[in-house]
Amino acid sequence: VQLVESGGGLVQPGESLRLSCEASGFSLNGYGIIWHRQAPGMPRDWVASIGGTNLKKYQESVKGRFTIIRDNAKNAVYLQMNNLKPEDTAVYYCEATRLSTSYWGQGTQVTVSS
User: Fold this and answer.
1) How far apart are alpha carbons 98 and 95 in whole angstroms?
2) What is the pLDDT of residues 4-20, one digit of tens each?
């Protein structure tokens, strides 16, 4: 059972990135998926989530810029991030959760800098 994030990198303000969260060893179908991020020296914070019924929620600071997308055929969830800002710089983690079960990926670094 594994969750793997990818797609991070170094971009300039205003650019876009698409993060992937891919599962192996289990199906993401029926799991709620949460994207978190942790900036240096800061606690981990919730960014966006998609429930088992595909209800989507976003942290206020990313509304209108980030979109969470579930692809059951690829057993993956994506975080499309547009108009990135320096304050979006962080390590981004995905979490798959259902009832008392929770799986985490290892994180992917996103750096937004000119």
Assistant:
1) 10
2) 999 999 999 999 999 99
SS (H, E, C) the chain: CEEEEECCEEECCCCCEEEEEEEECCCCCCCEEEEEEECCCCCCEEEEEECCCCCEEECHHHCCCEEEEEEHHHCEEEEEECCCCHHHCEEEEEEEEECCEEEECCCEEEEECC
Q: Which residues, 6 or more positions from 72, have their beta carbon under 8 angstroms from its beta carbon?
A: 27, 28, 29
Residue 63 tokens, joined: 């509304």
The pLDDT assigned to 54 comes to 85
Span 32-69, pLDDT tens digits: 999 999 999 999 999 999 997 889 999 999 999 999 99
> Angle 24-52-101 (CA atoms, 0-180°, nearest 5)?
55
Q: Are 17 and 8 in contact (CB under 8 A)?
A: yes
